[in-house]
Amino acid sequence: xxxxxxxxxxxxxxxxxxxxxxxxxxxxxxxxxxxxxxxxxxxxxxxxxxxxxxxxxxxxxxxxxxxxxxxxxxxxxxxxxxxxxxxxxxxxxxxxxxxxxxxxxxxxxxxxxxxxxxxxxxxxxxxxxxxxxxxxxxxxxxxxxxxxxx
Length: 150
What we know:
It contains four helices and seven strands. By secondary structure, the protein is of the alpha+beta class. This is L-amino acid N-acyltransferase YncA.
């Protein structure tokens, strides 16, 4: 079930995030992420944006979006729950929220070396904008993708 995230989801959301950080990002070696840092990041993220979780009796995925700039900020599905469509459903929850807020397009950043995530987004209709960045905090190149919401 996809539902709006609640304050009590913080710990399981951090669990999902850390599982993804250590497995999905291992191939391109981003900076280390510990539980305290992840908890601080997600406490702020959940308070400052619309967020949704995939809950199958336990939280196994999370996505969040910002209406202010029509951007999907995060999408993580626990490695043991990947491949069953939860990522697409979480993404659609964010896109539906952005549509309801009046957005005509949405954008997101994805780590450039994360080929599985890039392929996932391309299957969902996302295309590169040509913009790239490297945030000092992570030191990993990112590319911007966008998708029409109509």
